[in-house]
Specification:
The chain is mostly helical. The chain contains 4 helices and no strands.
């Protein structure tokens, strides 16, 4: 999570634009967030499981979210 947020926005957008890469980035970010966070564990677990199954869809949603709000949805 910290690694992704420390990247320039252009790199974040490029990583989320490429279909298979965005799914891998989503998996890494969501599962690392679940492991690292102390509160709201259930929410992060549900999001991590959903991203594992529907990662490409979440990748496109996060691309738009990142463009608008400069961070990932639920991260």
């Amino acid at each position: 999570m910290k690694w992704f947020n420390s990247q320039p926005r252009l790199i974040q957008i490029i990583l989320l634009l490429i279909p298979v890469v965005n799914w891998i980035v989503e998996l890494i970010v969501r599962w690392s967030t679940f492991v690292a966070v102390k509160k709201h564990k259930v929410l992060h677990l549900v999001v991590a499981i959903l991203v594992t199954a529907f990662g490409l869809i979440f990748g496109w949603v996060d691309l738009i979210w990142c463009l608008l709000f400069k961070h990932l949805l639920f991260a």
